[in-house]
Amino acid sequence: MADMHVALTNRCGESKSPYVRSHMDNATAWQLWAPETLELARKTNRLMLVSIGYSACHWCHVMAHESFANDRIAQLLNEHFIPIKIDREERPDIDRQYMDFLQATSGGGGWPLNVFVTPDLHPIFGGTYWPGPKSERAQRGGGFEDILMKVAGMWKEQEQKLRDNGKQIMMQLREFAQEGTLADGEADGPDDGVELEVIEDAYEHYKARFDNKYGGFGAQPKFPTPVHLKALLRFGAHDQVVRDITGDKEVANARSMALKTLEHIAKGGIKDQIGHGVARYSVTRDWSLPHFEKMLYDNAQLLPVYLDAWLATKKDIFVDMVHDIATYMTTQPMQSKLGGINASEDADSLQTPKDHEKREGAFYVWSMAEFEQILDEQELKVCTKYWNVKADGNVDRRFDHQGELIGKNILCVMYEVPELAKELSISENDVKATTTSARRKLLEYRNQNRPRPALDDKIVTAWNGLAIGGLARTSAALTTSSPEKSASYLLAAKRAVDCIRAHLFSSADNTLRRVYREGPGSTPGFADDYAFLISGLLDLYETTFDDTYLEFADTLQRKQNTLFWDMQKFGFFSTAADQPDILVRTKDAMDNAEPSVNGVSAQNLFRLASLLNDEWYEKMAKKTIGAFEVELSQHPGLLSGMLSSLIASKLGVKGLMIVGEGPVVEAALERIWGSIRTNCTVVRVGGGCESGWLRGRNGLLKGFTPEGEREMVQVCEGGVCRLLGREEVGALFGEV
Fold this sequence. Notes:
Layout: H1 18-21, H2 35-44, E1 47-53, H3 58-68, H4 71-80, E2 81-87, H5 92-106, E3 113-117, E4 123-127, H6 144-157, H7 159-178, H8 198-209, H9 226-234, H10 240-246, H11 248-267, E5 281-282, E6 290-291, E7 294-295, H12 296-313, H13 316-330, E8 344-345, E9 348-349, E10 359-360, H14 368-374, H15 377-386, H16 417-424, H17 428-449, E11 455-456, E12 459-460, H18 461-477, H19 483-503, E13 505-506, E14 511-512, E15 515-516, H20 527-544, H21 547-564, H22 597-612, H23 615-627, H24 629-634, H25 640-651, E16 654-659, H26 663-673, E17 680-685, H27 692-697, E18 712-717, E19 720-723, H28 726-730
Parallel strand pairs: 1-2, 16-17
Antiparallel strand pairs: 1-3, 3-4, 5-6, 7-8, 8-11, 9-10, 12-15, 13-14, 16-18, 18-19
């Protein structure tokens, strides 16, 4: 029998992750996910408790306080298990593997994710938050102490049965991961595979789940789901063939659903009404009570969606959100000194510098007494109505599970300015001026008197890729209307690329690292790191027309193909083939909080194929779509990110080439940057743009010398190219 009596010491201080390090003072002797830890589990024949979370996770902090710092829980963990703490943002592959297990066996999931795992890495039992010994919830049963004792006893008495069960479950998950893909992946032509009519099915999926009162989908909790909102906004921007399939009424309703959702988010508590940025999700159906953590990946995706909303409507509320989110990502504390953008801010913080116990949302909520202290009489009169501030607080007690928000107010915009002006018998300008001055005072008070939530200052490659793309598109669209802010957003995108090149990219083998913090992390980049960064670089190229960004994207795409492409059934695996600690190698096609790897990759391949005149990239894009024919046919609404690529596979990609300078070129750029473009790429040579590499890579441009060439705007689609005059440029994309 293996030696069960091994002395463990807490190793969290060896990690660079702020989340893992936050557990270094726990009585629990946490180990790191490393080869020596896995070997220790095998030698001692102990179950591992794999506990996965992230820095901004509120319930992760609750469980750490209630359980992992508790002497009794620590004793049980240290004597009977190998406890391992993992930051899910560093190892999304491990998280995905065990989250799939939990969802398959329990129907639910979330964080913290706690899974009991055999020395062979097979999961046998798992859950999310389990209450600690002193928690009131534990008194009702199902507490963490009871679970630990029961699992330890079962391992001692029924080890082989647990091993067999774990192995069987992983075999089923492995089989499930292969379902839905083509046996030979041969669908790669415009007449093969899934038809465009599934777009109508996707629309019906969204419509059936849409909340007509508050926007969004379903009841609560409510997530922004930017991938789906993007698809809805863009239904009407596709070719007439697509609009005919969906129907004019349906296209209008799709856009309406997205705009209504975005407006409610902008006015809700999920939006930081005093500062900047959007929280991860709303606990309530009406967007009023957020889960207060702010994640880069949410804000990075919402930025271009709000930009599309503004381009479609020109409504101030949407461009205000564009500036708000872009400002959040490009200023302290989110933008690091290295130029990359940090990962997240916590939900919890201290109410005052003198407090010792953090509370959820303490940085963001307000009492009526604070409003009376900070604001003058007019501001108080206007703003208590405008933001729904009440003497006894405005948080529904049913959703305040820990009683931390009693007497507090979460600011939500409850009035339109004309409506409030009429009710208070003042001018609209007075309402705007009053809320502006109040917001400034409240922000100053908050910054001076409240400790800011903890910052997770990891630089995650994938999330920076999302941010680079959003900032680049935003900069291009605002070139004329807000030139100074446009320039600052573009500079931030460029600095993020420079940061990744310098600290997360190896030119020796063209590989990426997943995370930078106090140096590059040891974890290699996953498929989403490559795909999301490539997408951002393509957006940055089409803003600057500096082909060094296009060259970097091409380099990364080639490496992504080498590391992650499935040669048998096509599409991209999320992890590389040589990943040693993964039991199930999955392919990601369904959009969740982040877009799917294969959805983004297919779009990247189509764009690169058009920009570089590369037929192989186009074939790979079509094979990627073909690999998920079953999923697209059965559940198109869950694969929103792949719909645009499906359209490209059938109808092709429109390619624009701009040469030189002049009024037609300027008109074309204004139209390009100010429109919602779908399946359209833009190449520019001459006019001071860096294009030497591009002219060597794109066979159609070889030998082309832009110097001295006359001004030209050309569009190619369906195998036919034509020159455009100024009037034709104005009609390039129809109605936005």
